[in-house]
């Protein structure tokens, strides 16, 4: 026979967050999954009003009261909860009055959506990256082959021209062919074979830190926030330096070009390990997270969705290749680069699995 203790044990082992509210919308029960999701302890939730656990915009208190008074259930998708500590989470939740109980109580079942939304966004980013890479390879092949012919024909023509003043024109053809070939090579990214070796991420970041420190010349404050417990991993140190330098240099240029800034801007280098973390559709036991954060003007919404594509840049003098190359290098380490930006804070987040299983091209 099922006992009340058995039912309580079932609730406490559910992965779904469950809250039981009375008529005043005070919590009379909250299961461990809800405590984790809402970042509260059991003692704090005892008799707490629902607004002390989370608030929702627009305010859903009236809807919850109407549901319990009228006995109507409802479900809401991708609602944003603001927690007691200011953190925000995206959830699906349903509210259901419990039948046959007096005084009436309301059962709230909550499913977190942030992780699913993030995985979906990362899968889309990886798919777009792969599509772009295939497109660039195809385009590079179609451009470089005729370029070789044009350059060779210009050289032959130059040998036949007796009038030396006409060599200026053939040289223009040769130089422009070389410039276009170099541009295509840069779009393809590094063409050197990866040199795998045990890599300490802090050695990589220290090299970037020193280079930016010299280039910035006291116009930018650099802050380190490292977690020394992060283990070494197999990586190409030089390529990783290039990847992190591209991001850091963009941040430095954004800060130093702010004409209305009175104080030097800040760039923060932050490292943290993540356990049981998913990149795209693959779950990893241990992942390195690096945040490169600046307090510059931010990236416009119209640009941020495309910043990892080649030839996309927010600066007139920018080539638009740095972030594309960075994404390619991190991708070859089975990682991913994301960007979150708003005025006053731009955060490039780099994820790299700390596992010695690299499938390099």
Task: Give me a quick take on this structure.
By secondary structure, the protein is α+β, with helices and mostly antiparallel strands. It has helices at residues 4-12, 32-38, 42-45, 50-53, 61-70, 114-160, 167-188, 201-216, 237-256, 301-304, 322-332; strands at residues 17-21, 27-30, 54-56, 74-83, 88-97, 106-112, 197-199, 220-225, 233-235, 265-279, 282-294, 336-342, 345-353.
Mind sketching the topology for me?
Layout: H1 4-12, E1 17-21, E2 27-30, H2 32-38, H3 42-45, H4 50-53, E3 54-56, H5 61-70, E4 74-83, E5 88-97, E6 106-112, H6 114-160, H7 167-188, E7 197-199, H8 201-216, E8 220-225, E9 233-235, H9 237-256, E10 265-279, E11 282-294, H10 301-304, H11 322-332, E12 336-342, E13 345-353
Helix pairs in contact: 6-7, 8-9, 9-11
Organism: Alkalimarinus sediminis
Catalytic activity: ATP + protein L-histidine = ADP + protein N-phospho-L-histidine
GO molecular function: ATP binding; hydrolase activity; phosphorelay sensor kinase activity
